[in-house]
Structure prediction request, 469 residues.
Amino acid sequence: MVVSEIPAINITARNTRIIPFEYEYYEPRSLKEALELLDRYGDQARILAGGTDLLVKMKARLVEPRVVINVKKIDNLRYIVEDGEQVRIGALTRLRDIENSELVKKYIPALHDAVKSMGSIQIRNMATIGGNLCNASPAADTAPPLLVHNAKIVLSSVGGDRVLPLTEFFKGPGLTVLKPSELLREIIVEKTNAGSSAFKKVSRVAVDLAIASAAIYVEVEDGFIRNARIALGSVAPKPLRAVKTESLLRGLRIDSREVLNALKTIDEEISPITDVRSTAEYRRYVSKVLVLDALEVAYTRLKGGVHG
Amino acid sequence: MVRVSFRVNGEPVELDVKPNELLLNTLREKLGLTSVKYGCGIGECGNCTVLVNGEPVLACLTLTVDVDGCEVLTVEGLSKGGLTRVQKAFIEEGAVQCGYCTPAFILMAEFLVRSKQEPSIDDVREYLKGVLCRCTGYVNIFKAVLKASESGRGREKVDKG
Prediction:
């Protein structure tokens, strides 16, 4: 593809100095209060968490909610706790909290890699993990690590909770199965000592959105891959698992050429587009490289080596 | 209108604001704190960085109602007891070109020297990468921050670019 074929950037020529409309504003102090507001206003309301995505969209009038529900004052949704065989992360946990968490570093290393690579310290101080998931960008960096760790999410509404695997959450760019009356409350990851994980991405400069990203979780026994899970970002309408490639990796010697051959299958599983950040062709190429790089880091970690 | 009360540079402030008012505009237009700069307005350039409860955030993506009860610090509040080590180092190293990004860099540098005892050049890059300087004067800024942190480590690397 030549440069002239790359679609122009859709810059909305708006004044980003202000939010150009008014809205009804609520600051619930408890989850119950927040859920009641969501029940009352439904799709007329937007949840404000970190604001790093929502306020940008509001400034550009891409979304114009009648009601804004700022959930940040709900204190008990900001936590990372070890609970038996699980690590539970509250939806309002800042990316910076996750970056600094020893629990995450130990049990979900790919997620540690991902948040460290996201935006700037200022952005990570504001942005929340729940916001990153619910914004449902195909480039959401917290998604691939959570997908390879088989994360589950808890969606709450006045009617009660439902628990879903994260694989069932994303529907497309900006789209999830979240109902207007629901709030993402918690992310649950099963602890594992059998394997390790890693996340890699390429972006133009450090604070940019990913051109492509990959996470891998791998278990290795006597030099053979016993189990592998791969997830990719920015190469499909939503972050996705590469299950076919995963099944081909199982049983292979980790340092063999067959691993490289198996990774070629990633081509069949992704559907990247050409946009302002990169071309479809490059995304196809680099996805395999990222998975291989992530595999190397995860394997080094598994062997007890220090890596990142 | 919503009544908010918070502290700015140590002084209590009480204001009635609309829920869609941004902290950047409150600080600049109502409180006269023009060190806080409007750059991109979408969280890319970092020039509106302020410290809220000691943590750097972007004022262009923060609702004023959200800092109710918080402590906000801008560069104006830094130099009350004379220039800080960071500010002196910026002057000594000539770490200023047009000056637009300087307040944000100073605040991030302050945050770095408060958070890390002996920052490496990689720490400096990590802490400062969220602020863009369009004059591209990064080398002197890095030198100033390393100087302020009383650490010569990495100095040579900066000189080599």
